Amino acid sequence: AQSVTQPDIHITVSEGASLELRCNYSYGATPYLFWYVQSPGQGLQLLLKYFSGDTLVQGIKGFEAEFKRSQSSFNLRKPSVHWSDAAEYFCAVGAHRNYGQNFVFGPGTRLSVLP
Amino acid sequence: GAVVSQHPSWVICKSGTSVKIECRSLDFQATTMFWYRQFPKQSLMLMATSNEGSKATYEQGVEKDKFLINHASLTLSTLTVTSAHPEDSSFYICSASPQGADEQFFGPGTRLTVL
User: Fold this and answer.
1) Does A57 score more than 70 pLDDT?
2) Contacts of B23 (CB under 8 A, 6+ apart)
3) Is the Cβ–Cβ distance between A88 and A38 less than 8 Å?
4) Above 60 in pLDDT, residue A98?
């Protein structure tokens, strides 16, 4: 069974600073990898996903993530954080095919942004 | 497009009563819907997979007699928490996956508080 770890429970950055949120997964086959953002009172929003191909994935809101198979990682990055980026971020992994039935979320990283 | 709604957004009930939560895909047909539970400051845990016209598949440890799931149409799935107790208080989130799509779209969640 697959699993996801997000080593950082809470990260605080200053507005305008760069950001990297870490995600490591465990899965024996080719994973489907996702990053979601959850803001208070709002549903989960997909930032980006990786299924295959180019290992550097561009997402919405200026986010990107890089799939590194050798490190079993899928870290999320943003070059310049905005105050509106403060939220909870979840990394998730799905199995190839029928991914929904085997969808696992990481514990989440809460991002705080200082003015 | 790909909007998923949940109703109600929050509900407070007395211990021992039953509560029904609706999940609707507003602009697409969803052959598969998923129900998640999220405890405060924790990640989402998949409770069950709901397929239109068939019985739901429950994850290990989820009581199917307590959490009744019905997926009667391609746009509606319901989760009924029967004989609710305070420990059932949680944030319940549904997601829906269009037929043939490799993505699931999340509803905004329902906050259940059992007194």
Assistant:
1) yes
2) B4, B5, B6, B33, B35, B76, B77, B78, B79, B94, B96, B107
3) yes
4) no
Indicate which of B26, B103, B105, B110 best probes the interface with A, i.e. most A CBs within 10 Å of its own CB: B103
For A32, name the nearest residue in chain B, comparing CA atoms only: B102
* 3-state DSSP assignment of residue A113: strand
| Residue A37 and residue A87 in contact, taking contact as beta carbons nearer than 8 Å | yes
The C-alpha atoms of residue B75 and residue B98 are separated, in whole angstroms, by 10
Band (pLDDT 50/70/90 cuts) for residue A101 is low
Per-residue pLDDT of B57-66, as tens digits, reads: 998 899 999 9
Strands (E), chain B: 4-7, 10-13, 19-25, 30-38, 44-51, 57-58, 67-73, 76-81, 90-98, 105-106, 110-114
Helices (H) and strands (E) in chain A, counts: 0, 12
Task: Flag if B42 and A103 touch (Cβ within 8 Å).
Answer: no
Best residue of B94, B104, B110 to probe chain A, by most A CBs closer than 10 Å:
B104
Per-residue confidence at B1, pLDDT binned at 50, 70, 90? low
Number of H helices and number of E strands within chain B?
A: 0, 11
Residue A85: closest CA among A55, A62, A54: A62
What are the start-end ranges of the E strands in B39-109?
Answer: 44-51, 57-58, 67-73, 76-81, 90-98, 105-106
Longest Cα separation, chain B: 41
Specify which residues A50 forms β-bridges with: A33
Residue A27: the pLDDT is: 84
The tokens for A56 are 């550097």
